[in-house]
Each structure stands twice: as structure tokens, then as C-alpha cells.
Amino acid sequence: MVIELLYFDGCPGHEQLLALVERLATEARAEIRVRMVDTPEAAEAERFLGSPTVRIDGRDVDPEATRRSDFGIKCRLYRHEGTQSRTPPEAWIREALHP
After folding, report:
1. 2-97 has which fold?
2. 39 touches 72 (CB < 8 A)
3. Most buried among 8, 18, 22, 94, by the most CB within 10 A?
4. Sequence-distant (≥ 6) Cβ neighbours of residue 61 within 8 angstroms
5. Number of H helices, E strands in the chain
6. Average pLDDT for 17-36
7. How far apart are the C-alpha atoms of 24 and 19, rounded to whole Å?
């Protein structure tokens, strides 16, 4: 299992998220890949919805991600239960790790 943390410089969310991803990866015995996406072309090719993005085995942890096509170099906001956050809820990551 591979957990990817995709980001671009300029959005602080990925730094905050890295510790959580590392902990969950250790629990799940998963590999972590941290990758920077730094051009609009790379964002399009990666289907990058913004920084930070977390994927488990290539699949975004956001349940609505497959319906979106607004790829680009931007900071990402996650909406969950009436709130907004710079990082996805831990529950989404756990659900993606244990479908």
C-alpha cells in the first residue's frame, strides 16, 4: 500500500498533514511518497486538486474527488460536516486505508 502526499510550495497544509500521514502509514505498514507538483501541466497530468492532496494507492481520500476536474496549482480546502479545513479529515484517510 502506498500513501502519497502531493503538495506545492506556498500552501502550509502539507506540513501540518505530514505527521498524521506518517503515523497512519506506520500503523498500516504503508509506504509514504511525498511529491511536489510545481507546474500547471504537472497538476493536470496528476489530476491534482490542490495542496495538500492525499492518495491511497492512487485514489484521492476525498469521497467527492472523482467528480471534480478543477486541477491546478492552488491551496486545497476540504469540506466535511459543515466545516472547512486545509487538510482532509483523519477519518477519510483511515477509511481509504481500510476500505
Report:
1. Glutaredoxin (3.40.30)
2. no
3. 8
4. 54, 55, 88, 92, 93, 95, 96
5. 3, 6
6. 95
7. 9
Taking alpha carbons only, the member of 10, 8, 9, 30 closest to residue 20 is 30
pLDDT tens digit sequence for 44-94: 999 999 999 999 999 999 999 999 999 999 999 999 888 899 999 999 999
The identity of residue 52, as a single letter, is P
Per-position DSSP letters for 6-18, written without gaps between them: EE-TT-THHHHHH
How far apart CA 99 and CA 96 sit, in angstroms, is 6
SS3 28: helix
- Break the chain into its structural domains and give their ranges: 2-97
